[in-house]
Amino acid sequence: MLTINVNGNLGNQEVMLSDNTSGTLTGVRIFGSVIGGNQVIQWTFISTGHKHEGFVYAGDLREGLVINSMNGNGQYKVHFVQE
Q1: Would the CA dihedral through 60, 61, 66, 67 be positive or negative?
Q2: Tens of pLDDT, residues 14-55
Q3: I need a surface site. Which of 7, 10, 16, 71 has the fewest CB within 10 A?
Q4: How far apart are CA 83 and CA 70, in angstroms?
């Protein structure tokens, strides 16, 4: 399991992993139905140089959250940092 270091004050960002590799984390607000008005953030992680399998996650990021990679070959644990 790798730790993904996320700056909670930023949206789209370059992130560092616990093995000192990096990647890009992007968030896009997804809207539900017009009537319901539900919305969620969809987060996508892509590893620089494709060293690790990426992930797509819909929901709020929180400290300690574990996210499985696209094909389940890896896991990422969210850790918030201040920079």
Answers
A1: positive
A2: 999 999 999 999 999 888 766 667 888 999 999 998 899 999
A3: 71
A4: 28
For the record, the structure tokens of 80 come out as: 């918030």
The two three-digit tokens of residue 36, written as one number: 């319901």
User: What's the first-to-final CA gap in the chain, in angstroms?
Assistant: 23
Residue 28 token pair:
């896009």
The per-residue DSSP string of 10-77 comes to: -SSEEEEETTS-EEEEEEEEEE--TTT--EEEEEEEEEGGG-S--EEEES---TT-EEE-TTSS-EEE
